Amino acid sequence: MSRLASFVILISILLPSSLSAHEFNPAHLLINEIDDISHEYSAQWMYPKKNIGQRGRVLFPSSCIRKNDPLFYQSKYVVENITLNCESSIKGNFIEILDLSVLTDSLVTINYINGQVFEGLVNLRNSKLLVPNKTSLLGRGYFQLGLVHLYSGLDHILFLLGLLLLVSGFLNVIKTVTAFTIAHTITLALSVTGLIYIPQSTIEILIAITIIYLAIEISQNKLYKSTPWLIAFGFGLLHGFGFASALTDIGFSDGNLFYSLLFFNIGIELAQIGVILIFSLCIYVMKISSFKFNYSLAISYLLGGAGFYWVLDRGISMIF
User: Taking the complete model, does pTM exceed 0.85, yes or no?
Assistant: First the structure.
């Protein structure tokens, strides 16, 4: 058995908790205004079933009387439908969400009867959200979700690291990253609009396989000098489905699909640029360092072990 295969299996056995990629399933509080005179609202609170700790609790303004329907399960979420009868508009008041975990943010979407939409993001550190009297810029919440999604997705981050190690030359890096961006933008749009559907469990396994593939290529000291963007484009198509998977569950704002998708993608791209800059700097430092260390081989072991673990873990989860 080769050294790479042995080390891959060792990592997969010893570091399962460290290699667990956080599945991006944000909570979503959707509020629809029913009557702007009697100030009646319908709300739906969607909270991921796989979560650390107890389910998040929503606190509405004290002027609102709430009626909760029984909980039910929908896809990956525990869902609660709520009816609100308020003495006045919820504009200018706070909505608070308690007991969020460090890995679970919540998107808040308010659809007003006049067609206006407000979106915001609540997390563990900022649990209160002020509903403004005037609606803010569309897509801000989805922009923040895009940032969070990339930074919390260890599999996507490791894929970018592996891709950088296989590309030679600054211009080729630019072409490769551009191809990856275009590809995942295409499938992200096709997936969330419902034009193409592939089960998330299948996509997650395929993404893990792409990481294993990169690990093998790195271990063999391969460098893509002529057309590195071709492999980046092909694998980017798969990762786009991964980016879209959670969003198809929580949904986009009706009538604002384009802006929500645009801002979510911008958030992903900015986070991706940050990751690439950090990795590029680290690789440059290791190259010029006098310390003799085969960092490429070490990273290939890390990618291979993580990818192998994810294939097993996600495959078992899909079967059982």
Answer: no
Closest CA to 190 of 238, 145, 146, 250: 238
Q: What is the 3-state secondary structure (H, E, C) of 201-266?
A: HHHHHHHHHHHHHHHHHHHCCCCECCCHHHHHHHHHHHHHHHHHHHHHHHCCCCCCHHHHHHHHHH
Phi, psi of 233 (to 5 degrees): -65, -45
Which amino acid makes up residue 9?
A: I
Beta strands in the chain (DSSP E): 27-35, 40-48, 57-59, 64-68, 72-74, 77-86, 94-98, 106-111, 117-122, 128-130
pLDDT digits (tens, 9 = 90+) for 39-60: 999 999 999 887 767 889 999 9
Q: What is the pLDDT of residue 160?
A: 92
**Structure-block tokens of residue 99:** 């007991």
Tokens 């059982």 sit on residue:
320
Rounded CA-CA distance 36/169 in Å is: 59
Q: What phi, psi does 94 have (nearest 5°)?
A: -95, 145
Q: For the chain, how many residues are written?
A: 320
